[in-house]
Each structure stands twice: as C-alpha cells, then as structure tokens.
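User: Teach me something about this protein's shape.
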Amino acid sequence: MSRSVPVMAIHGGAGTPDRARLTPEMQKAYLEALQEALKIGCSVLDNGGFADDAVVEAVKSLEDCPLFNAGRGSVFNHEGRHEMDACYASGRLRNTGAVAGVCRVRNPILLARRVAETTPHVFLAGAGAQAFADASGLPQMPDSWFFTEHRHLQWQEARAAEEIWLDHGERKMGTVGAVARDIFGHLAAATSTGGMTNKKFGRVGDTPVYGAGTFAEDDLCAVSCTGHGEYFIRHVVAHDVAAHVRLLRMPLSEAAWKVVYGNLMAHGGEGGLIAVGPLGSPVLVFNCPGMFRAWRDEEGNIFAAIF
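Assistant: First, the predicted structure itself:
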C-alpha cells in the first residue's frame, strides 16, 4: 500500500484585523499559539496516526488558548454566557458529529466527536446537546474558566451599542479549525467557535453545519471555514468547494478560490477557508485582509501568518 505525504493546515479566524491594535507582541503570541497547535496535530500524523485524531488534537489546543474565539476564549452572548459550537468530520469513516449552544464544555470539539462516535445522530443543539455534554464525562469548567477581560470588554461595548459583533472592532471572525491528510490518504476536518459577541435568540453559525462550515470526504477534500457564518450557510461553502472538485474536476486550489472570491464574495460574504485533498499541499484562501493561519506543506515546510 502506497503512503501519502501527511499535510495539515489550521486557522484561528479570518476578517479585518486592526493592525494598530495588533501589536508586535500580540502578533507573536498568536503566531506561536498557531504553530503550537500545528505542531501537536502534525505529531499525530508523523507517528502514523489518523487525520481524525490530528485535527481534533489541533483544535483542542486552540480551544484551550484564550486568544481565539473558541473554547476558553469564547465571546459572551447577550446574556453574558458562553455558547459554543463545533463540528468534527472524518473522511475515513464518512461520519460527522456536531454540537451547538453548549456551555461549560472545556473542549466542544471532543463533544462533537463523541456525537459522531457514540450516537446515531449527527447534530445536537441547545438543551439536548447540553444534557449530552453533562452525561458524557468530558471535562467541564466553571464560567470563570472562560472569562477573559478582553472578551468581557467587547461584550460590554456591544451591549451598550446594541450591536452584534463578529469579533469586536478588529473584525477578526473568531473560529478555529483544522484539516489534515494522513499517511494512509485519509482526510479529516474539525471546526470550533464561540460565535458572535452579544448574539441573541440561540443564533447558530456555519461552524457546526456540515457542508456549510465543515466537510470531509476521502478522495475528495476536507474543508474548514471561517467568516460571517450566515453567508457560509446560505451558499453551503464547504460543500460547494467539494462540488467543484467532484463535478467539474477542478483542482482543489482553483475550486477554493472560485468559491471564496466568486459566489460568496459577490453576495457580500467575507471570510476564508482551509482545505486539503488527496494530493498536494493544503489550500488556504480568504477574501479579507487577514486570516490567522499555519500550515505544513508536502515538503515539510512550516508556515504561519496573519495578514
């Protein structure tokens, strides 16, 4: 059996970061956190592990980092709580699991994977997802674990302005995600988010919606999106990339660019995605000034960037 070259990409949100606010020290902290998550995921691949495990471990690392709007760094909703969404997609098993609106769960990506592997369902939301979390045995943390001063100030400003923010004035759309291909050629994707600051009414974005914000199918592609979720849902962005590859026989890089800069952008959608296919290096595309990202290509080179 021939072996594939393992590759991986991760993102920590896309949008319009404010260069004036993002000091050199902050940029360094973001890039180091991205590189650490990439290192964790790649170590799984380098030890012969599956892409499924690699993407989950990478996203778990980003969820534990307070810099990103997922897990510990999640934004506050209108009621001052943290409601988190996540999706896990395995090309190897052709299986996916997702959760939306969960609270106190330290790593929502683990809960999403638990849905895929231990239930007949795909998507659990709200009170049902929380009950599943409570019974899962996965680590849960007190509200103080998720509190960060930066996010709290964002929430106070958004409430005072009676606005809903993607991720404060920086317009960094806070979602984290990972895609990978392992030595067996299997593909996987994982995405996690805290959603929008001051969001109301149980709002759910594209992250946990399979085919909109997350997708994986062996021999085709794995995709993780970040951006204004409503647009990614309306245009089923992750699956649209896959459809261009499957139906039009389009190279993955061309498909990703066509979707992100074509239909999505034409209708006002801002953001980006990371993707990987059966061959080649990861593809990272965004139609906005920045996307927090890191990746390892087929030659083993490591990259990390924001703008």
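Now, about its shape. The first strand starts at residue 7 and ends at 15. The two ends are 40 Å apart (CA to CA). If you'd like, I can walk through any region in more detail.
User: That's plenty for now, thanks!
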